[in-house]
Amino acid sequence: MASDRARRSTARRRAGSRRDILRALIWLPLLWPASALLRRLRSRHEPAPLALPADLPRGLSVAGTAIVHRHADGKVQAWAARCTHLGCRLDRVVDGVVVCPCHGSRFDATGRVLAGPATQPLQPLRVVADARTGGWTVDIA
User: Fold this and answer.
1) Predicted confidence (pLDDT) per residue in 56-113, tens digit
2) Can you give the pTM of this predicted structure?
3) Strand, helix or coil at 10?
């Protein structure tokens, strides 16, 4: 009798594992389109690179979603135009200093914090020279 129970429990375990395999085979074709949809939605929200003109003024300036600094030697650096305190959009440069309109944080021409409440420097962005236009392209990712 004990061996009969052991056989039944082994049969149940096999049936359970068969059910699990069948469930996986049913769900697998449904997961593939869902993952493709998520990839498509993610790609829609990736921001396009920001094009900077060749006649970009020297010093600090706001260009769309980036803070841009063109040095006297022509080198260009960029940072995300989001305050590192609470994420407010940075939209002004006053006396060579980037000022947050929400809480007054100040950042210098290298992205470092001059005055809080922000404690972290601005997020640097990659700048690539565009040989076709003579300007630059900023990756906003």
Assistant:
1) 778 888 887 888 888 888 788 888 888 888 778 888 888 888 888 888 888 888 888 8
2) 0.60
3) helix
Residue 100, judged by CB atoms within 10 A of its CB (0-12, 13-18, 19+), counts as buried
CA distance 78 to 22: 53
Spell out the domain ranges in the chain: 1-46, 50-139
From the list 46, 70, 43, 66, the residue with the least C-alpha distance to 56 is 70
Whole-angstrom Cα distance, residue 49 to residue 115?
30
Record the tokens describing residue 105, joined without a space: 């944080």
CATH 2.102.10.10 fits 50-139, yes or no: yes
Residues recorded for the chain = 141
What Å distances lie between residue 101 and 8, 81, 104, CA to CA?
A: 72, 12, 6
Distance (Å) of CA 93 to CA 98, 110, 130, 135: 4, 13, 25, 21
